[in-house]
Amino acid sequence: MSLAGKGADVLIVGQGVAGSVLALTLQQRGLSVHVVSAPDRPSASLVAAGIVNPLTGRKLVKTWEADRLFPYLHRFYSDLSRQLNTPFFTPLDVYRPYRDEKERRLYQTIAADPELLPYFKSEVDESAYSTVINNPFGGIQVTQAGWVDLPAFVAAVRAYYIDKACFSTGHVRVEDLTIQPDSVTYLGNIYRHVIFCEGPHGQENSLFGALPYNMVKGEILTASVADYPLTNIVNQGIFVMPLSSTRIRIGATYSWHELDWKTTDAGRSFLETKARALLKIPFTVIDQQAGIRPSVTDRRPLVGWHQTYPAIGIFGGMGTKGVSLAPYLAHDFADQLLLGKEINPAVNISRFHSL
């Protein structure tokens, strides 16, 4: 592998959602970038559902920094979709059918919170869901959510950088880097910074392997349906997301064991059982995928610079919410790099320097 030209301001290692978003953000801020992606590594981004949802969990907990993240990500992905001429971003709502009367009362209390009020639709057309979904107690509708078609997004970004001769395939090994205090040389090319965006493979990087990853395996299904009329995501323990009028996605499982990229009969059975209880209409599973989410023990991303080598950085550990987190955190990282602003302590890897 050889890199084009004489290097760049930043070498981005990895081209999943984190690497793609960071590369585009730094370029938008005036830096030159070169992106390298390993061709034979499984990618968490290519099997992730790509859902952005401001209120998650059974108790509808607001996503960390949601008030900043969600307006920003909607603008970011919408603008980028137009720029790359690829319709990979779809704003959607999330309909949450109540499990019982107790949950109905709980959700209505949550929805009355002034801080959460902007995230709920005031009027829900229950009849639009009742022909497809088992919702005898009604439901609540969360706004400002959406879906990023990650395979389409990653492919569009890759094509963009290939066209600019700023993309290469290959493995960037730490031992092949010549690291200076203010630069890094790789394959004869000099970079001001090298930033690793390797997702779950980051734990194999000797420079950052001591960081406390806590990987989570997830599985999703794709199913065919005769005529699916809903255009929003439905969530009740699992999600059902429309891909088209004849195809839906069902997910997801969570496992901290058997951390491999293989699908399982247990995962398929769990998701099918949940989906058949939720849906009134028949469906046929046509595909199953598994991936490893790059989570961290404290459930916050890993952003910042190596303690010993300040020209080496990391932008990863996004966990289950990388699509939501990456745009705004990339903006903050660019502010630090260009303006010297402090990285948010909640995500700065300096919180783990004792390791």
UniProtKB/TrEMBL annotation:
Could you tell me the superkingdom of the organism this chain comes from?
Answer: Bacteria
Instruction: Cite the InterPro entries for this sequence.
Output: FAD-dep_OxRdtase, FAD/NAD-bd_sf
| Keywords, in A-Z order | Cytoplasm, FAD, Flavoprotein, Methyltransferase, Multifunctional enzyme, Oxidoreductase, S-adenosyl-L-methionine, Transferase, tRNA processing
> Could you tell me which Pfam families the record lists for this protein?
DAO
FAD dependent oxidoreductase domain location: 9-335
Q: Does the record bear Metal-binding in its keywords? A: no
Does this UniProt record's set of keywords contain Oxidoreductase?
A: yes
PANTHER family listed in its UniProt record:
SARCOSINE DEHYDROGENASE-RELATED (PTHR13847), TRNA 5-METHYLAMINOMETHYL-2-THIOURIDINE BIOSYNTHESIS BIFUNCTIONAL PROTEIN MNMC (PTHR13847:SF283)
Q: What is this protein called?
A: FAD-binding oxidoreductase
Gene source species: Fibrivirga algicola
